[in-house]
Write a structure and sequence with these properties.
The protein is an alpha/beta fold and 401 residues long. The chain has helices at 3-14, 20-23, 37-42, 44-52, 57-74, 88-96, 120-129, 145-151, 174-184, 203-206, 232-235, 279-295, 297-317, 340-343, 351-362, 384-400; strands at residues 25-26, 82-85, 106-109, 132-135, 156-162, 187-191, 210-214, 226-230, 334-337, 365-366, 368-370, 373-377. 41% of the residues lie in helices and 12% in strands. Bound molecules: pyridoxal-5'-phosphate (PLP).
Amino acid sequence: MSATQSSLRSIDNIRSEFPATKKYIYMDVANQGLISRTTLGSFEKHLQNRLSGVNDELFQLREVERTRARFGSFIGADANEIAITKNASEGINILANAFDWKAGDNVILCPQLEHANNILPWLQIRKKFCIELRTVESVDGSFPVEAAINSIDRSTRIVALSTVTMVPGYRTMMRPISDACRSNGTFLLADGTQSVGILDTNVDDLGVDGLSVSTVKGLMGLYGSGFLYCRRDWAEQLEPAYLTRFSIDLGDAPESAPILDIPKLRAGSPRFDVGHYNFPGLIAVDSSIHQLAEIGTDVIDAHVTKLAERLSQGLMEMGLPVCHSSGGHQPGSIVAVGDVGTALGKAEPAPMVRELHNFLLERNVAVSVRRGLLRFSLHVYNTSNEVDQVLDFSSAWLKKA
Ligand SMILES: Cc1ncc(COP(=O)(O)O)c(C=O)c1O
């Protein structure tokens, strides 16, 4: 049996790990991912220890380092390029506040496509440091690669974008942007929350300098836990806004050693760690990353992309307005229905979006509406049979409407 066959078999087997799939056709990972039975069991021992007064802090601190390394290798990075964060927003804020901004610097952003958490930090940086926020207009829901590249100049410090947008959910074509950033010495920061865990991710292939994620979606973990990748050579040039016990290098000194001066920062990205860790969140994501890695992110990527394509085709064939990326951006695991202009603030939401949404919810299809678009978001536990059921429901709704 080939490696791919054995992995595909794992995809078949994995559904039993997600009891939610018995009740729902769960196509809402872009909102909140499912956790597995194994993940649920993974942090019980730690909570039992807390309950019974067994102090496992030192053990858990060692486990944090294991998880840091596991996430690093999951995205093609070294452990010392990973900071442990609370979520994607914290990672973006950590980076935004670690630069030595000068008035006249600029940041490039397409606010129409970004989650609020990748807009607000930049508005605040603009206010605090009198930098310029260079906004670029989306092209039909896609990231405007050419406009962004043309906007880069000697004062561009950061280009901030998402690997996959929250809606309409296209994969951003990263390479031309990263090449332009690299040759200009500009930091490319990506919010990877909607892709990591679902689409095959390698930071070198993406060409990013920073990648911030929450673990609650594609990574199948808990709320309040995230990772920030920052390329080692960049991390060493940046100054964390906060300093805490876990961001400094105490050498062999005990944790309780008195500190009289600013000590050495930890090498690489762990300098961005703030205070004690969310142990249950990290234990959970350690377990879920292990499950994802066992199947293989290339296999998961191919699986979800194929299902999303089948869904998209089927909905289009029945005449529903499926959003389509232009300009060479590849489709991914998200299918959005409605007028893409709604998401870009250029059109009123169509009533059909809410109506079809309610029709599907009544039939236990978990999906969301975001920025006026009906968003189907798929993961490893979805099947072609589920896609066909959603197509049948949608066709029934159309006949009734
Ligand atoms: C692209 C993207 N980034 C970030 C978030 C959420 O950020 P956080 O987990 O930091 O609250 C979401 C959705 O919730 C999102 O879609």
